[in-house]
Design a protein that fits this description.
single chain, mainly beta, four-stranded antiparallel beta sheet, OBSCN protein, Ig-like_dom, Ig_I-set, phosphoprotein
Length: 86
């Protein structure tokens, strides 16, 4: 199985409290497994506050809904041994 790498990494974002924010990370191969999103080293799950999806097979997105001050921190996207942070 080919090694999946990060083609386009995360970008830093500035948002206002109560707004939604979307992070995108593009990987080299479709159907990448072993993918993880984290906020401040806490793994994120797909739920009503965190929408995790994949567009066109390679673009992984994380949308944080109605952010608060507690959401300030480092977002990280990991695929296999490769990581991108913002």
């Amino acid at each position: 199985e080919p090694d999946v790498t990060i083609v386009s990494g995360l970008k830093d974002m500035v948002v206002f409290e109560g707004d939604d924010v979307m992070f995108r990370c593009q990987v080299s191969h479709e159907n990448a497994r072993d993918v993880e999103w984290k906020l401040q080293d806490v793994a994120l799950q797909n739920n009503e506050m965190n929408e995790i999806s994949v567009e066109q097979g390679k673009v992984h997105t994380l949308t944080l809904r109605k952010v608060t001050e507690q959401d300030i921190g480092t977002i990280s996207f990991r695929v296999g041994p490769h990581t991108s942070t913002a």
